[in-house]
Amino acid sequence: MARVHVETWKTTYRGIVPDARLDQMTVDRDLEGGFGRWLTDPPPGHRAFVGEADEVGVVGFAVAHPEVGHDPVFTGELGAIYVLRGWQGQGIGQSLVGSVARHLRSTGHSAMLVWVLEGNPFRRFYEKLGGEILRRELRPTAGTKLPELAYGWRELKALMEL
Ligand SMILES: CC(C)(COP(=O)(O)OP(=O)(O)OC[C@H]1O[C@@H](n2cnc3c(N)ncnc32)[C@H](O)[C@@H]1OP(=O)(O)O)[C@@H](O)C(=O)NCCC(=O)NCCS
User: Fold this and answer.
1) Rg value, the chain, Cα
2) How far is the CA of 52 from the centre of ligand 1 (A)?
3) Residue 91, CA distances (Å) to 12, 57, 95, 118, 135 in order
4) Which residues of 120-152 are buried (b: 16+ CB within 10 A; e: fewer)?
5) Chain centroid to CA 44: how far?
6) Tell me: domain 2-160, CATH 3.40.630.30, correct?
């Protein structure tokens, strides 16, 4: 998962997140830092789902958890979703969203949101899945503050079918 996290940041966020931050990312540093701490001791209610390929291992993952800002409607959150570049566009992301939606629904959430960097071209992925833009905020990311959009789904039923 750390390999997918690091590689996907580097292939997606160049020109969006400061170069210095991307250049210093390695799997070892990721495992020693916040991502590693999250993996070994996830906060209550956090659940990860992975997509795997034979002889490659994890090629994508997504994280579901309760929404952190206490939104009264969008109580579930898609906390992260990454698929390695070479495995994108094959339905893995969509299937991970399905797993997240089913998990959130089974743990009492009927709506969810996801935060995405405004400059991320992959935000079309969420639009294709029916997400609506809820709000825009400057949020702390990678040691700086960047504009992010929250996409929301008021109803998880369609996503649960993915
Ligand atoms: C975004 C991401 C998770 C999507 O996963 P994926 O496996 O590539 O997506 P899928 O193959 O399941 O695509 C599902 C649908 O979204 C569409 N889609 C995916 N990426 C898209 C893009 N950049 N622009 C427009 N549509 C896109 C696909 O065409 C597909 O629609 P279709 O079934 O009608 O063809 C993956 O591409 C990724 O990891 N991107 C880089 C990291 C990133 O930006 N993560 C999100 C951080 S908030």
Assistant:
1) 15
2) 17
3) 18, 17, 6, 23, 27
4) beebebbeebebeebeeeeeebbeeebebbbbb
5) 17
6) yes
- For the stretch 105-148, pLDDT in tens is 999 999 999 999 999 999 999 999 999 999 999 999 988 999 99
CB of 76 shorter than 6 A to ligand 1: no
Q: Ligand 1 within 6 A of 70 CB?
A: no
Burial of 75 (0-12, 13-18, 19+ CB in 10 A): middle
Q: What letter would DSSP give residue 20? A: H
Of 45, 19, 16, nearest in space to 123 by CA: 16
The residue extents of the domains of the chain are: 2-160
Length, in residues, of the chain: 162
Instruction: Give me 93's structure tokens.
Output: 């992301």
Model pTM score? 0.96
> Which residue has the least CA distance to atom 7 on ligand 1?
93
